[in-house]
Amino acid sequence: MPSSSISSASIRAAFTRASRASVAGTADLKPGLPKTLVVSTTHDPATPYRQGVALAKGLNAALLTVDDVQHAAVLKGNGCVDKATTAYRITAAARDGRC
């Protein structure tokens, strides 16, 4: 496996920028990167849906809302979620959606 050239300091800096941007309402973590896709479940027992919405807003990302009760939704047997996230991984085109 190739070694990563991303340092802990650059990761911390990116999260700091995202946190500050979340307060401001927008984020530009790395110009030129594709739009992020956030997947958030409406009745997640571990992470409230509103936090997924806030994360998507703070990152200026697309939000895929999943009407379900589980914590993780990707590759867990939901064809709609799997289709949307696979398409994102192939095309890097993120859109808001609901499954």
Describe this structure in words.
The protein contains three helices and three strands; from the N terminus they run H-E-H-E-H-E. It has helices at residues 8-24, 49-58, 79-91, and strands spanning 37-41, 62-66, 97-98. Residues 22-26 have low confidence and may be disordered. Strand 2 (62-66), helix 3 and strand 3 form a beta-alpha-beta unit. The chain has 99 residues and is of the alpha/beta class. The chain has a domain at 35-99.
Keywords:
single chain; 99 residues; alpha/beta; three-stranded parallel β-sheet; globular
Structure at a glance:
40% of the residues lie in helices and 12% in strands. With 99 residues, it is an alpha/beta fold. The N and C termini lie far apart (34 Å).
Largest β-sheet summary: 3 strands, parallel
> Using DSSP, what is the number of strands?
3
Share in β-strands: 5-15%
Q: Helix segment count? A: 3
Distance between the termini: 34 Å
Radius of gyration: 14 Å
Q: Mean pLDDT score, rounded? A: 80
Strand order of the largest sheet: 1-2-3
Which overall shape is indicated by the principal axes computed on the Cα atoms? Answer: globular
Question: In terms of per-residue confidence, which ranges show pLDDT below 50 for 5 or more consecutive residues?
Answer: 22-26
The H-and-E topology, N to C, reads as HEHEHE
* Helix/strand/pairing category: alpha/beta
Helix content: 40-55%
Topology (elements, then pairings):
Layout: H1 8-24, E1 37-41, H2 49-58, E2 62-66, H3 79-91, E3 97-98
